[in-house]
Amino acid sequence: MSRAVEELNRRMLRARDAMDRAYAQPLDVPALARIANVSEAHFIRTFRATFDETPHHYLQRRRVERAMYLLRATDRSVTVICLDVGFSSLGTFSRIFRDIVGQAPSAYRERGPIQAVPNCFAMAWTRPSSFGEAPAQNIV
Fold it and tell me: In this structure, are residues 100 and 65 in contact, taking their beta carbons and an 8 Å threshold?
């Protein structure tokens, strides 16, 4: 791997780390491109090539992952969780949640509390699929 490719990968990781830290904040491509120190168009292309999904899809998936945890670990309402993870519309949240997880947020909550297992297993079992993939059916 060339030094230039390695440096570009580091920049993409820096932007992805910023998305992971501030997933509930309003993030836009210009701000993320500035973090990666590249143009907006180059950022979108490179992010997708590096992580196999667009920055927008990555951010939505991270928000849904957090919502999945909150739905089963707290008794907060779906609306409050929707706003806590960075969505501004309950309808949009529900549609994206269903697209990624395969069921509505309220139906997902009915699975009950999260079982006590090592964190690495829980994350692997509950990680939602990317857009366009069939959702996992037999998740604990």
Answer: no
Q: How many domains does the chain have?
A: 2
For residue 93, give the 3-state DSSP assignment.
helix
The Cα–Cα gap between 14 and 45 comes to 16
Residues present in the chain in total: 140
Claim: this prediction has a pTM higher than 0.70: yes
Residue 131, pLDDT above cutoff 80: no
Judged against a pLDDT cut of 60, whether residue 132 lies above it is answered with no
- 136 in any annotated domain: no
Range of the domain at 21: 3-52
In SS3 terms, 18-32 reads as HHHHCCCCCCCHHHH
Query: 10 Å Cβ neighbour count for 38?
Result: 19
86 belongs to a structural domain: yes
Give the separation between CA 125 and CA 7, rounded to whole angstroms: 32
- Write the DSSP symbol of residue 117: -
Is residue 44 within 8 Å of residue 55, measured between CB atoms? yes
Quote the percentage of the chain above a pLDDT of 70. 88
Whose structure tokens read 């196999």?
52
Q: What is the mean pLDDT of residues 3-17?
A: 92
